[in-house]
Design brief:
Oligomer: heterodimer
Number of domains of chain A: 4
Number of strands of chain A: 28
Number of helices of chain A: 9
Strand content of chain B: 25-35%
CATH topology of the largest domain in chain B: FAD/NAD(P)-binding domain
Number of domains of chain B: 3
Largest interface: A-B, 29 and 34 residues
Radius of gyration of chain A: 37 Å
Largest sheet of chain B: 7 strands, mixed
Structural class of chain A: alpha+beta
CATH architecture of the largest domain in chain A: 2-Layer Sandwich
Distance between the termini of chain A: 94 Å
Shape of chain A: elongated
Helix content of chain B: 25-40%
Distance between the termini of chain B: 76 Å
CATH superfamily of the largest domain in chain A: Chloramphenicol acetyltransferase-like domain
Structural class of chain B: alpha/beta
Largest sheet of chain A: 7 strands, mixed
CATH class of the largest domain in chain B: Alpha Beta
Number of strands of chain B: 22
Chain lengths: 553, 470
């Protein structure tokens, strides 16, 4: 069924009598909605009048040179009934919305070309790992036929700066693993292939992939290559968030002028992480500078050097002086050497020594030993010392704290997680006993036993070693009179314990044999004064001398 | 066979190549520049941008002199001495290419004439009339440019020319067919039309200059339609027969005439293709895609560590000003600087009459990318300056994202090519509509039309009819 409608001149402002300078259609033309019909010229502008409907032109009521105004009939249109809308309504809002919806749907489909496909083989590539090339693979965590989830770690890479795990960008079954320990890899190298589980390759998870597809220079990337998710090397780092760092990666175009963009690239600052302080979040040169300054000053979790420049050590041919053997350091040794070095040079250390009289404490412990053994607990002096330590920490909260990276404030911790240094064949590890203040001595002793065993069996997870608020290093089982432990950042102090021994102590009248425990407290002098440290050890010694003090508050 | 050593060798002395060579030399590197032709400057200086602009200037003055009749000034019919026009154009080219040679000498850039081919990832052979040389290099920048696409069905006939042939300006044909309604074809049509030729344009797409937005192109289309014999959109050439009385052309498509048409001259301007296939790149394993483009990263590095590529060879847009900026980056990266080619936008200009220019996103691209945007438009019919020169057909348009930041701009009208530069700066600097609107532009100028377009976007423009509530 057809219908005749009139197409009229729409509202063209107050312009009355606009000249028609062109007629763009003829009788019999089949036109679409929005097809330009005539060109009008007013004293201000030239404009085209689009058709409000689709249909076939039956007659034209105007000609070039005519003057028209709002509401004048331009032509008659024969339309199909389905598409009728009144001539006065150029575009009905409902239709517009529908169109938009269709467009959005199309967009969404285009945006996720992979998602709706059946399971397929996905190449997993090394993601953007900064400027690092030829990075050592130090661990391969997956093997053929493993079923893996998204974000599961695939391999561990080690650069001169950091150790990082490469997570999977997709879930699926491992078809093949193409790297092995000792290989050197760079960005975009193939790690392995996955047979994807359905709907497991959300395109959103790989922004680099999307970027690569958009960027003209990377047009050669094929669509089923999925890069591993970008490494968030901050994720496992104890370093707090950057004050100049955005919480979220910026979307869209970065608001920075070309010179600032180049400046950032030269310094290696990733602009998407820099917070702009300019008008409407514009990144200015100062922002980049502040970002870099902070990056340089803040202690890196795995950086090799702090802010102090040290002269490089000369290379020495040791073999010149006799027979030698080169032994590679274990992974734990390498990591702890980096951390210890950093802490040693970036924290001003002072070590305070004190001997604690533990004669009564030890007598009590021995008297309880058998009873404890019966319930399966090995009652060690350390469990008592930890309980006493927490008692003292509560009296001196500054010792259970971290210095904020900006150097402006102290972060006091209302939890008491005590790290305990444990020697293992591979090197030193520091598992953490949590909430010591809420635990009884038996429980502490039990947990100490468990966690030390775990450490020696190399079964400690990252979680077991994080979050300490204070650390104890005990060499009491071995010997020695005193030593200077290195503060384990972000703690501000560490308690070293040497071997206790019976010593003559003057009680005012005579020398008495007392069991003395030598304690060495190293502390961060930026946070703790010498007097505080002395008070701390005196308080701790007093607590150890009479453990009943723990009950008092 | 002599052996030459260089820290940096640059293949091709077009705008990209000579810029890369000069920049590398300025950064203290030892540079060899290899050019196939006798003169430096490449297509742009010798047979492209520069000579065409010299001719377009003549065309412009001819047209403007004529249009002065309506202002009450008559010059009479112009006398055209085509030899002298050609001489002038050649003089311009000579002056510039000579200047380049001098600048190369001053920088101690070793210029070698010949055809370069890769021998290994660290050596090239350069063949010329005087023999073959081997150039050993530490780093190479490929800037070998592009060449005209040849339509396979065109017969070999001197009356069928490409842009190079058109610039030679042998004579003025009576009826000239331009195949391709892109920038190059339309610029040459502008020149030949002003000099007296009858022009027919045939274009496969549904608009001239397909990359630009329809509304912008429409103004140009409407203007040139009156000057040309015919513009056939959505039409293509299927056959050309070279006969003694002329070139008989058969068309196919929407606007195709039924009978073959006769032309005196055919200008084929259907695009350019990269010269990646001429360098024996297989010998070094530099990857070329199916269209001949070399894939490079943001630092213009190819997949071979010490080999870089810039300009037309690495992709669209094939523009001299893109190549020169890439050239700086490539040379600087080789010199150890951590630079990268990461512009927000690259302007495009058609030096037609009226000129057409755009920078950043077009509406078309914004829609394709799903970017939410709105526009501000200022018609030159409301510009006192445009009215004064009697050219009110144009308009200026700016595109903004939902945060009101400018993401693109376009203009059509006289001098649009010069006006667009300001909007490029605005995009790079991340200007918002308000920034542009609040920047005081001189009155009366055409440049203020962009400020007015920003005001129009903001709804604060008082040089347009009052804003009605949407």
């Amino acid at each position: 069924m057809t219908n005749l409608i009139q197409v009229k001149v729409p509202d063209i402002g107050d312009a009355e009598g606009a000249d028609i300078i062109e007629v763009l259609i003829a009788v019999g033309d089949k036109i679409e909605k929005e097809t330009p019909l005539i060109v009008l010229e007013t004293d201000k502008a030239t404009m085209e009048v689009p058709s409000s409907d689709a249909g076939v032109v039956k007659s034209i009521s105007v000609a070039v040179g005519d003057q028209v105004s709002n509401g004048d009939v331009i032509l008659e249109l024969e339309t199909q009934t389905e598409s009728i809308s009144t001539a006065e309504t150029p575009v009905s809002p409902v239709e517009t919305e529908n169109q938009l919806e269709v467009v959005t749907k199309l967009d969404a489909e285009q945006a996720k070309p992979i998602e709706n496909k059946p399971p397929e083989i996905i190449d997993i590539l090394v993601p953007d790992i900064g400027d690092a090339v030829d990075v050592d693979v130090i661990e391969v965590l997956i093997s053929k036929n493993d079923s893996i989830t998204k974000e599961q770690s695939l391999i561990v890479l080690e650069t001169d700066k950091a150790t990082m795990e490469v997570p999977s960008s997709a879930a699926g079954t491992v078809l093949e693993v193409l790297v092995k320990v000792g290989d050197k890899v760079s960005q975009n190298d193939l790690i392995g292939r996955l047979s994807a589980s359905a709907n497991s390759v959300p395109s959103k998870e790989s922004p680099q992939q999307t970027a690569a597809q958009k960027g003209p220079e990377k047009a050669s990337h094929t669509s089923n290559v999925v890069q591993s998710a970008p490494i968030n090397s901050d994720r496992n780092s104890p370093v707090p968030d950057h004050p100049h760092m955005k919480k979220k990666k910026s979307e869209g175009v970065i608001h920075a002028s070309p010179s600032v963009r180049r400046f950032a690239r030269e310094l290696g600052a990733e602009l998407s992480k820099v917070k702009g302080t300019g008008n409407k979040g514009r990144i200015v040169k100062d922002d980049v500078q502040n970002f870099i300054k902070f990056e340089l000053s803040r202690p890196k979790a795995t950086a090799t050097s702090g802010s102090i420049a040290t002269s490089e050590l000369p290379t020495i041919d040791h073999a010149k002086w006799g027979e030698i053997e080169t032994q590679s350091l274990t992974r734990i040794q390498k990591i702890s050497s980096v951390n210890l070095h950093r802490n040693w040079i970036s924290i001003p250390h002072v070590t305070q020594h004190e001997d604690a009289d533990i004669t009564e404490l030890d007598a009590f412990r021995k008297s309880m030993k058998e009873e404890a053994m019966n319930s399966g607990t090995r009652l060690t002096p350390l469990a008592f010392i930890m309980k006493a330590l927490v008692h003292t920490l509560k009296a001196f909260p500054k010792f259970n704290a971290s210095l904020d990276n900006d150097g402006e404030s102290l972060i006091l911790k209302h939890y008491y997680h005590i790290g305990v240094a444990v020697e293992t064949p591979d090197g030193l590890t520091v598992p953490v006993i949590r909430d010591v203040d809420q635990k009884g001595i038996y429980q502490i002793a039990d947990e100490l036993g468990e966690i030390s065993a775990k450490a020696r069996e190399k079964k400690l997870g990252a979680n077991d070693m994080q979050g300490s608020s204070f650390t104890i290093s005990s060499l009491g089982g071995i010997g020695g009179t005193a030593f200077s432990p290195i503060v384990k950042w972000p703690d501000v102090a560490i308690l070293g314990l040497s071997r206790n021994k019976m010593q003559p102590v003057w009680n005012g009248k005579e020398f008495e044999p007392r069991l003395m425990l030598p304690m060495s407290l190293s502390y961060d002098h930026r946070v703790i004064d010498g007097a505080d440290a002395a008070r701390f050890v005196v308080h701790l010694a007093a607590t150890l001398k009479d453990i009943r003090r723990v009950l008092l508050n | 066979m002599s052996n030459i050593k260089a820290q940096v060798v640059v293949i091709g002395a077009g705008p990209g190549g000579y810029t890369a060579a000069f920049r590398a030399a300025d950064l203290g590197l030892e540079v060899v520049l290899i050019e196939e032709y006798q003169t430096l400057g490449g297509v742009c200086l010798n047979v492209g941008c520069i000579p065409s602009k010299a001719l377009l200037h003549s065309a412009k003055v001819i047209d403007e002199a004529k249009s002065m009749e309506t202002h009450g000034v008559s010059f009479g019919e112009p006398t055209i001495d085509i030899d002298k026009i050609r001489e002038y154009k050649d003089g311009v080219v000579k002056q510039l290419t000579k200047g380049l040679s001098g600048m190369a000498k001053m920088r101690k850039v070793n210029v070698i004439q010949g055809v370069a081919k890769f021998e290994s990832p660290t050596s090239l052979s350069v063949a010329s009339d005087s023999g073959t040389q081997i150039v050993n290099f530490e780093n190479c920048i490929i800037a070998a440019g592009s060449r005209v696409v040849q339509l396979p069905f065109l017969p070999d006939d001197p009356r069928i020319i490409d842009s190079t042939g058109a610039l030679e300006l042998k004579d003025i044909p009576e009826k000239m067919l331009v195949i391709g309604g892109g920038i190059i074809g339309l610029e040459m049509a502008t020149v030949y039309r002003a000099l007296g030729a009858g022009i027919t344009i045939v274009e496969m797409f549904d608009q001239l200059i397909p990359a630009a937005d329809k509304d912008v192109v429409k103004v140009l289309h409407r203007y040139v339609k009156k000057q040309y014999d015919s513009i056939m959109l959505e039409t293509s050439v299927t056959k050309v027969e070279a006969k003694d009385d002329g070139l008989w052309v058969t068309f196919e498509g929407k606007k195709a005439p039924k009978e073959p048409q006769r032309f005196d001259r055919i200008l084929s301007a259907v695009g350019r293709r990269p010269n990646g296939d001429k360098l024996n790149l297989e010998a070094v394993g530099v990857g070329v895609d199916e269209r001949g483009f070399i894939a490079v990263d943001k630092q213009l590095k190819t997949n071979v560590a010490n080999i870089y590529a810039i300009g037309d060879l690495v992709g669209q847009p094939m523009l001299a000003h893109k190549a020169t900026h890439e050239a700086h980056v490539a040379a600087e990266v080789i010199a150890g600087k951590k630079h990268a080619f990461e512009p927000q936008c690259i302007p495009s200009v058609a030096y037609t009459d009226p000129e057409l220019a755009w920078v950043g996103l077009t509406e078309k691209e914004a829609k394709e990318k799903g970017i939410e945007y709105s526009t501000g438009v200022f018609p030159w019919a409301a510009s006192g300056r445009a009215i004064g020169v009697g050219r009110t057909e144009g308009f200026s348009k700016t595109l903004y994202d939902k945060d009101h930041r400018i993401i693109g701009a376009a203009a059509v009208g006289v001098n649009a090519g010069e006006l667009i530069a300001e909007m490029g700066l605005a995009i790079e600097m991340g200007c918002e509509a308000e920034d542009i609107a609040l920047t005081i532009h001189a009155h009366p100028t055409l440049s203020e039309s962009f400020a007015f377009s920003a005001e129009a976007y903001e709804g604060t423009c008082t040089d347009l009819p009052p804003n009605r509530k949407k």
